[in-house]
């Protein structure tokens, strides 16, 4: 899997797609298909989002609700060990984490790669008594909020971020 970051390309396994001139090029069984995608999901674990279309619409709604516009956002799902490697390589931190955001936004257009540890999401759901899906929505929203200049590196920032995450999870559960 290739993860595009501001610091360079992270090649964790064989590439599942390549990005060229704002178009995703998928390489499957020797065929190349060009497909413009605003929200992309890349799976490096057994986990798969069941309704990608609904989740994509929610991602766009989250971005619009904060006064931004959607550029291209990639959510890449990993296990704990692969996430730890990403954390060490790019952030020089040698521990497990649930989400890492590589923000490539400019002005009001949100672009970024958001890496998520499915193992951490499962563990956090159990630890905090949350449903797995809601915890997944929380970390997805968390990564998006970082792309929208929200920070959680102090007490006040953490309070604001938690409030925004809860607000965004509720948006998903509103009937379309």
List low-confidence stretches: 11-35
Number of strands: 9
Number of helices: 5
Biggest sheet strand line-up: 6-7-9-8
**Percent range of helical residues:** 40-55%
Structural class: alpha/beta
Query: What number is the mean pLDDT?
Result: 85
Give the name of the CATH architecture: 3-Layer(aba) Sandwich
Oligomer kind: single chain
Beta content comes to: 25-35%
Largest sheet, in brief, is:
4 strands, mixed
Could you say which overall geometry the principal axes of the C-alpha atoms support? Answer: globular
Q: Tell me the distance between the termini.
A: 33 Å
Compute the CA-based radius of gyration: 16 Å
Tell me the CATH superfamily.
Metalloproteases ("zincins"), catalytic domain
> What is the H/E string?
EEEEEEHEHEEHHH
CATH class: Alpha Beta
In the CATH scheme, what's the topology name? Collagenase (Catalytic Domain)
Integer count of domains: 1
């Amino acid at each position: 899997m290739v993860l595009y970051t501001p610091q360079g390309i992270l090649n964790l396994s064989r590439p599942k797609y390549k990005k060229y001139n704002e178009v995703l090029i998928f390489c499957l069984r020797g065929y190349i298909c060009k497909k413009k995608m605003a929200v992309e999901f890349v799976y490096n674990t057994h986990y798969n989002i069941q309704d990608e279309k609904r989740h994509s619409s929610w991602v766009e709604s989250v971005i619009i609700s904060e006064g931004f516009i959607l550029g291209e956002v990639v959510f890449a799902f990993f296990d704990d060990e692969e996430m730890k490697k990403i954390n060490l390589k790019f952030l020089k931190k040698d521990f497990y984490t649930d989400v890492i955001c590589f923000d490539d936004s400019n002005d009001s257009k949100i672009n970024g790669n958001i890496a998520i540890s499915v193992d951490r999401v499962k563990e956090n759901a159990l630890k905090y008594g949350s449903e797995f899906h809601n915890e997944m929505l929380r970390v997805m929203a968390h990564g998006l909020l970082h792309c929208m200049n929200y920070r959680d590196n102090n007490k006040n920032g953490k309070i604001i971020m938690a409030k925004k995450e809860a607000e965004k999870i509720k948006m998903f559960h509103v009937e379309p």
